[in-house]
Amino acid sequence: MFIFIAKERSFMKRWITVSALIFILIFSVRAKAEGVKPEVHFMDIGQSDCILIKGEKNYLIDTGLPRTQDKVIHYLDSKDIDNIEDIVITHYHDDHYGGLEKILSSKKVKRVILPKHQQNYRDYIFSYLKDKNTKIDYIDSSYSINEKDINLKVILPEKEDLDIENNNGIVMCGTIDSLKYAFMADAEKEREKDILKNKEISDCDIMKVGHHGLDTSSTEELVRAINPRVAVVTCDGDESPSESVINRIKGNKTEILRTDKLGSIIIRKGKKDKEVEIMTSKMIE
After folding, report:
1. Full-prediction pTM beyond 0.85?
2. ∠255-258-263 over CA atoms, to 5°?
3. Which pLDDT score is estimated for 18?
4. 39-42 and 265-269: which strand pairing?
5. DSSP 3-state assignment of 280?
6. CATH match for 36-284 among 3.40.50.150, 3.60.15.10, 3.55.40.20, 3.40.50.1970
7. CA-CA distance, 232 to 186, in Å (whole number)?
8. Within the chain, how many helices (H) and strands (E) appear?
9. Rounded to whole angstroms, how far apart are CA atoms 161 and 146?
10. 131 pLDDT band (50/70/90 cuts)?
11. Whole-angstrom distance, CA of residue 205 vs CA of residue 190
12. 3-state secondary structure at position 126
């Protein structure tokens, strides 16, 4: 009898242990599925842009300069980013497309989205992507990112600007985990006027300040219309940002976050409705 009970207890103990492990595994998988909280990462790579939208799928807006490509890869590695759904190149300046080759050779990228206007660098990038057998799409107004808790649309220029490439850039806006974002690329004042005229953008929680905070962009009218609670400036602290732009945004009672002062900046929704949670690499260090 003692042996039987001992065996029964041993079996029950094993069954409870196995059941507990199965429960832990199921709970872990479910927690992982439910716990993917979208974040936006503004990388500290000087006067250039590379923005990671991290969620159940990952997206990049621009890729930085050629000289910052190793820093971008290191950052992506540190966040365990191996797969990227789309890379959106906003326009054909090398501080936005310069890290593309290195990212493609280091990460699994499903697709690259390019502006469709004719440009010498477009042909160069297209040839390279073709050689790498990378899927390429030229953007149109129907492009959007619609994933769990991420809904972004594009604002395209009315016509090509033959003089100022910045005005041909892809502006993106929409919600990420119920926070409203405006990613202004390098859009300059004339492009901003068109956006305001067409009422394509309004109150946002977070604005990625156009053209690294230089005085070519971020007019008082635009800042008032977007009325951001937080403005992120991707800048080097030397050539950018312009003091006049910083003062203009401060005058709107907006919190300013600068990559030259804070390092890489991570933004996500806090626990309360419309609460903005901010982390910076210098805080983490």
Report:
1. yes
2. 130
3. 44
4. antiparallel
5. strand
6. 3.60.15.10
7. 13
8. 10, 15
9. 29
10. confident
11. 23
12. helix
| 157 pLDDT tier (thresholds 50, 70, 90) | very high
Q: Which residue has the tokens 């297209």?
A: 126
Tokens standing for 23?
């429960």
For residue 24, name the pLDDT band (cuts at 50, 70, 90): very low
Which residues contact residue 19 at a Cβ distance below 8 angstroms, ignoring those fewer than 6 apart? none
**What six digits make up the tokens of 90?**
């906003």
The Cα angle at residue 223 between residues 94 and 157, in degrees rounded to 5: 50
Residue type, 190: E
Percentage of the chain beyond pLDDT 70 is 87
The token pair at 18 is 């196995």
Tokens of 131: 């050689």
Report how far apart, in Å, the C-alpha atoms of 61 and of each of 23, 97, 182, 206, 212 are. Answer: 39, 10, 12, 15, 14
